[in-house]
Design brief:
alpha+beta; PspA-assoc_dom; PspA-associated domain-containing protein
């Protein structure tokens, strides 16, 4: 799976990591719904860190279709709220 982090680039991520990332995504969704700014910031950073750790960066000149698009680390709670679906940022 190809994941884009807005403003950073793309990484290739094995589907086997989705369960772990979905747990963080569920936490993020709950924090956004509650308006928990500090929790939101902590969980968004944790989610992006795990994607970077688990994923293999694609070359800068590579432009693959992204299956997931995640917000930039500095995204605000309101910006992420606009990106969320009922399933969060990561479907499933």
């Amino acid at each position: 799976m190809i994941v884009r982090i807005m403003g950073e680039g793309q990484v290739r991520l094995a589907d086997s990591h989705l369960a772990e990332l979905n747990k963080l995504d569920d936490e993020l969704l709950a924090e956004v719904e509650k308006g928990d700014g500090p929790g939101f910031r902590r969980t968004l950073n944790a989610l992006l860190t795990r994607v970077r750790e688990l994923g293999e960066p694609l070359p800068d000149d590579s432009l693959e279709p992204s299956e997931l698009i995640l917000p930039a680390e500095e995204a605000t709670l309101e910006e992420v709220r606009e990106l969320l679906s009922d399933d969060g940022l990561i479907p499933g």
